[in-house]
Design a protein that fits this description.
single chain; alpha/beta; four-stranded parallel β-sheet
């Protein structure tokens, strides 16, 4: 039986190890995590699902438009990898059935139905989602699911910038284009660290909230995974320590498993000293809030 009213949400900014953590926690356990759903996002960032539904179907609730709703979900129109590949993620009839069970088919009902259908198809009982919406909307998750558990992933902002900027650089870019790309992501990361620090200060006293540093998962994966499993109330499994490795901004890892310890310091050789100093100076207080003195 899927535990629908106590989901686990992984929240946080980009390049903070959320995909690695999701893969670890899903391995050999009852936990299941849907990938990014983009339910609510700042308008300048992405076209979120809420906007798509309101423009194409109308305001919620969408109970009377269930068939149109399902058609839209499987149309590949909504933004995000999950919606573009929904036919491989959740069987259409299964999702339709879970949506039909919701008493009020609003955005909360959609999230609940998608999580439960996704978990049920994988024979898991503990549903959850990684970044179901932008972390600035975390208060909505708590309002919708007061008993949910929040895992907030963070990482040294200098490492995040090095990873994020290099992810989008290509060999055919001009010098000017590369400089503009770096500037964009420099601004992005500085906004991200400020927002995540505020998020942590707001929820650090909440017993349903836990801050998880990427570096701690890398340095002490077994100890940190045990602590996280205790927090979300699932059993720890040794198989969690051998996640599939995904390609980073610096190299690919196809077919490899385990945790790369060199990912902690690798950014130091890929980041100019002036950039390191600037981020450290601008974000000194926010870095301290998140445990990066």
């Amino acid at each position: 039986m899927v535990e629908a009213d106590r989901p686990v949400f992984i929240i946080g900014g980009s390049r903070t190890g959320s995909e690695m953590l999701k893969t670890m926690l899903s391995s050999g356990s009852t936990a299941d995590f849907v990938d990014e759903l983009f339910l609510h996002c700042p308008r300048w960032l992405h076209r979120d699902l809420d906007r798509n539904l309101r423009e194409r179907i109308g305001p919620p609730p969408w109970d009377a438009d269930l068939d149109r709703l399902v058609d839209l979900f499987y149309s590949k129109v909504p933004y995000g990898w999950v919606w573009e590949n929904l036919d491989t993620q959740i069987e259409r009839d299964r999702l339709h059935s879970h949506l039909q069970r919701e008493e009020h088919l609003d955005m909360r009902g959609i999230l609940r139905a998608v999580m439960c259908a996704h978990a049920e198809q994988r024979h898991k009982t503990r549903p959850g989602a990684k970044f179901p919406m932008h972390y600035s909307y975390t208060d909505k998750l708590l309002a919708w699911f007061p008993d949910c558990l929040l895992i907030h992933t963070t990482r040294d902002p200098r490492a995040v910038y090095a990873s994020q900027a290099n992810k989008y650089l290509t060999d055919d870019m001009s010098t000017l284009s590369r400089a503009f790309c770096r500037l964009q992501h420099f601004a992005h990361i500085n906004i991200q660290i400020a927002w995540t620090a505020q998020l942590h200060k707001r929820y650090e006293g909440n017993p349903n909230y836990r801050l998880v540093q990427y570096e701690n998962v890398i340095v002490d994966p077994k100890g940190e995974l045990r602590r996280i499993c205790d927090f979300i109330e699932i059993e720890f499994s040794e198989s969690m320590l051998s996640p599939e490795q995904y390609g980073s901004s610096f190299r690919t890892s196809a077919g490899k498993k385990g945790v790369r310890t060199d990912s902690i310091a690798r950014w130091q050789s890929n980041l100019p000293p002036l950039t390191k100093m600037t981020i450290s100076a601008v974000q000194r207080q926010n870095m301290a809030v998140l445990g990066y003195e």
